[in-house]
Structure formats: C-alpha cells, structure tokens
Design brief:
CATH superfamily of the domain at 16-91 and 121-197 and 295-365: FAD/NAD(P)-binding domain
CATH topology of the domain at 16-91 and 121-197 and 295-365: FAD/NAD(P)-binding domain
Shape: globular
Largest sheet: 8 strands, mixed
CATH architecture of the domain at 16-91 and 121-197 and 295-365: 3-Layer(bba) Sandwich
Number of helices: 15
Distance between the termini: 55 Å
Number of strands: 26
Length: 557
C-alpha cells in the first residue's frame, strides 16, 4: 500500500442494458478506463455523442506510472474539464539539467517564451489524473463508466460492432456504431482480433523507485549519464505531488526484475545517490523494459485502437500518455461529424493517416533516445561520452545529446485534410500544426476560445484600426451561414459592434501576441479544425477557397 495515496474502490452497478432481451445499441463504446480510454469517453461527451466506457477493474492505477504531462496534453484535458485540477495538484516545471559523471553539462528550458496559459510540463501521479477523470465522468450526461465489465468477444458486422461483456451478474451483449479500444499495451481485444504490434524490444531495463522525502531539490528534470553513485548507468530524477520523487536507474538486461524491486536491493541504490544521512521512504517500485512497437494500422473497420493498445514507446521522453491523448483528440471530432451525417465515412481513414505518422515520429525519437542512453557497442559508448564532454563547452553539441527527446505535439504535415499554402508566412503555424496559445480579451486565452468542438476561423482585418469593412463582413457572414459543419470566426481587433452576425466574434489582442505568433498581416485568414490543428491559411479573404478547404478538412474532397 502506498504511503501518500489510498486507491478508491468503485462500486459495480448493475446496468439496465443487462436486462434487455436484445443487445442495447450505443453510438460509441470505449474499452478500457485508463487515462486514454476515459479521455475518449469524455471527448465523446463534449462532442454530444452518447458513450459507454467498460473496464474490467474497479479502481485507478496502482503506483504513479505515467507522471509527465506535456503542454499539449494539458490543453486537451482543459477541453475535457480536467486540466485545471491537474495543474493545481501537479508539479510545474520547464527546466531540465543534464549531468555527465560529476559535471553539469547544460541546462535547457522547454518553454522559454512568455504568454502561454499552460507550462511545458507538469508531473503528477497517474492515479490522481484517473480519479479526476472519474469525477468528471460522474458529472457528465450521456456518458457511463461501468466497472467490473470485461469484454470477452468482439464481432464486427457491416453496420455495427457486437460485443459480449462479462460481469459479476453474468454476461450480456451490446452493439455500437464504433468501438474505441483503449485496453493497454497487452490489449486483449487486439489479440482477440488476431492483430499484432511489431517493432523493437530493447535489451534494456530500468528500475522505477518512487521515494517520499523532503528536500530542497528544485522542481526540474535531472538526468545523469554515468554518475559516480551509479557508475556505468544512467539515472533520472524528478518531483511529483506529495513530496514523492521519481528516480529511474538503468539496470542492464541481465538484471532480475523481481530481485531488483525488493527493498533490500533498492534502498542501497537510493542511499548511494541521496546520501546516507537523507531520510526517505520507499513508496513504489517497478521495472520496465524498453519497447518501441506499433500496430500496422490503428483503424480496423469500425474498431479504432488508441494509446498503448495501438503503440508503445520507451518511457524516456514522456511520449506514451501524451501521444495517447492526441489520438483521442484526433478521432472524436471526426466520429461526431460522421455520426451526424456531416462528413463521409472516409474521413475516419485520416485517423490512420495522421496518427500512424505521429506514432512513427515518437518511435523514431524514442529509439534514438534509447540508443544514446544505453549504447550498444564500445564505439557508440565512446561517441556518446565524447558528445557529452563537448556539450559542456559548445552549444552545437547539445543538440546531439539525447536524454529523452521530450514529447512535442504532432504536426500533420502530410495530412490529406490540409490545404497547402499559396503565400509565404513567418513562424511555425503551418497547416497541420496545432495552434499555439496567446492571451486575448480580458483574461482569456486563445486556445480556450477555440476549444468549442467546432471549426474556427481567425481573421486579421484589412483595416488595422479595428474596422471591418462591409465586404469583409458579408464574406464572413456568408461563410458561417453556408458552412456544412459548425463554424465560428474570430476577428482580431474588430470593434465590438452592437450587431455582429451570429458566429462572428471580436477578439482583442492588446499585447499583439496573437498577431505576432500567426504573422497576422492585414487580410490574413486561418482555418482551424475542431482539434485546434490548422487546416489552411491565406493572405486574403476568399470565400470559395475557404469553403473548398472546409470540404477537404472534412474528407469530402
């Protein structure tokens, strides 16, 4: 039992669906109530899709598990109603330090830029996040979480998926339009369907030790290569909530996982690192093996695999859960449009096109991190050590150091939903990129304004004094009226007229951050998807081009 946390036990509740003589149908069923499965269910709820989450357990994760949540994940969780509780409880950090033996090699800042609502990262034990998500689900309408409900059979039919569910009260059947599979790295449904993950299992193991202690270490990520207290290996230290510190020790492939987890073997390692005089208590231990694997495809007809069920990466870089949240963020708005008949079913193929490419990028970065952290030959070890020595003095070498390339939001550069640029722009806000943030209005944030599960437009008027010409207003109004999908348009600097047409909203950019980050010259228009990724942008307000881009972004062309 953990010293700082007691796992809740959730009650199994008999469902009325179990008493129906025929299978009850739900638009979406999610299998798995880990963070990614619950994110899928909550996203369905925010989109207005009735959904059911099934889980074979009745509590949250045992141990801290995933602890690092990146800025993009927090922005997604903000939309799902969980982000603020995480930030309030978690440990905020932007800085990291890399050490080689006794020396500090360099310090890095993951968010050196001001004027963002969320930090680069927070650290928070996974069980807290899961509890917050369960609380949010209990408040939600048209969303139900059923504990002690194990899916034992799945059959895909032409117009639905049928599943068999085992409960303490016996078995029953359900059907759904779409099944979201979030049952983890050892996915039972993936095996049931005869689907496999392929990739690389590295001959590297790391020990996780969660330690309770009071110390004046700052809330930063510290990574050591070949430290004196763990010679020949690597070590990672960072802080979580409740004065719990996560410490990872590289073990080597020959280590016996069960032996290494025993307190009598863990505590000497910790004392060598922290000092004999440091008081601490061992909270939780685990041993993990580096793996970089994914399914060939994440969509299989009416089944969609998300999170660890679809792809696994080594934990350095915090790419697991953070990537999983981007899976559900990508998928649910597309399911909503298809279920509502506002987009063709082929739009769902873009989930594969976009998220498989994102998974490959994560796998590549994770593999490179693993190779640098744990060299596989004497030559690669010599190269790594030489790189670290150079990095102490020469900034160019710091880009070669890899202690885990930390999670970044996926950019869908080659998405079939993008419309290519026709003009030149400065900055990083290219088609396929998730929107950056900026302070707007009186205490608002740009990403909060467009967290509305709709397509959004951003327009910088021709008149820089806040005016909006009649022709511009007519074009914008016509765009909103004619759109086949929900569309809101934000106009930067437009004077708040008494009567702006429905769907058109003024945005104050008093600090000029929005204009700077989007290179908002007069006449510039951006189109954002419901997941806040940029679909297209232009240097002029052309209704036909914007309507065509909307068609492309919804899979119609």
């Amino acid at each position: 039992m953990l010293q700082t946390h007691q796992n809740p036990v959730y009650e199994y509740v008999h469902s009325a669906d179990q008493d129906s003589p025929t299978p009850v149908h739900h638009p979406v069923i999610v299998v798995g109530a880990g963070p990614i499965g619950m994110a899928a269910g909550l996203d369905a709820c925010t989109q207005g899709i009735p959904a059911v989450i099934l889980d074979d357990n009745n509590t949250v994760s045992i141990g801290s598990r995933a602890v690092c949540y990146a800025k993009r994940a927090l922005e997604i969780l903000d939309r799902l109603g969980c982000g603020q509780r995480m930030v309030d409880k978690g440990i905020t950090w932007n800085l990291g330090k890399v050490f080689f033996r006794d020396d500090l090699v360099y310090t890095f800042n993951l968010l050196p830029e001001a004027d963002h609502h969320r930090p680069a990262f927070i650290n928070l034990q996974q069980y807290y996040l899961e509890e917050y998500m369960v609380d949010r689900i209990r408040q939600a309408e048209q969303l139900e979480l059923r504990w002690k409900s194990r899916v034992t059979a799945v059959e895909e039919k032409e117009d639905r998926v049928e599943i068999r569910v085992e409960t303490p009260d016996g078995e029953y059947h359900l059907t759904c339009d779409y099944l979201i599979v979030a049952d983890g790295a050892n996915s039972g449904i993936r095996k049931m369907m005869g689907l496999e993950s392929s990739g690389q299992v590295f001959q590297d193991r790391f020990l996780i030790a969660d330690v309770v202690m009071e110390t004046d270490f700052p809330p930063e990520r510290w990574f050591w290569f070949d430290p004196p207290f763990h010679q020949g290996g690597s070590t990672l230290l960072h802080r979580q909530a409740d004065n719990v510190w996560r410490i990872d020790f590289q073990l080597g492939w020959d280590a016996d996982p069960e032996e290494e987890k025993k307190p009598e073997n863990v505590i000497p390692r910790l004392k060598a690192m922290l000092g004999e005089e440091t008081e601490f208590a061992l909270e939780w231990t685990s041993v993990y093996t580096f793996q970089c694997r994914r399914m060939e495809r994440f969509r299989h007809g009416r089944l969609f695999f998300v999170g660890d069920a679809a792809h696994q990466v080594s934990p350095f870089g915090a790419r697991g859960a953070n990537s999983g949240f981007q899976d559900t963020d990508n998928l649910l708005w597309k399911l909503k449009l298809v279920l509502d008949g506002k987009a063709p079913e082929r739009l769902l193929d873009s989930y594969d096109a976009e998220r498989v490419a994102a998974a490959d990028e994560n796998l590549l970065n994770s593999t490179r991190s693993t190779d640098f952290i744990t060299p596989k030959s004497e030559m690669s070890g010599t190269f790594r050590d030489a790189t670290l020595l150079l990095a102490e003095e020469y900034p160019f070498a710091r880009g070669l150091v890899n202690s885990g390339r930390l999670s970044l939001p996926a950019v869908y550069r080659d998405s079939p939903l993008n419309t290519s640029d026709e003009a030149s722009f400065d900055g990083r806000m290219t088609p396929g990129t998730p929107s950056t943030d900026a302070p707007v209005n009186e205490g608002d944030w740009w990403l909060q304004l467009i967290a509305n599960n709709r397509f959004n437009g951003l327009y910088f008027p021709q008149e820089t004094d806040g005016g909006l010409g009649d022709r511009e207003l007519t074009t914008l109004s016509t765009l909103v009226e004619r759109a086949e999908v929900p569309l809101d348009i934000r106009v930067v600097g437009a004077a708040p007229r008494l009567e702006l047409p429905a769907g058109i909203h003024p945005v104050a950019d008093s600090k000029g951050v929005l204009k700077a980050r989007f290179d908002g010259r007069p006449g510039t228009f951006y189109l954002f998807r419901p997941d806040q990724h940029i679909a297209a942008r232009w240097r002029g307000l052309d209704r036909e081009k914007i309507e065509t881009a909307l068609q492309r972004a919804t899979g119609r062309i």
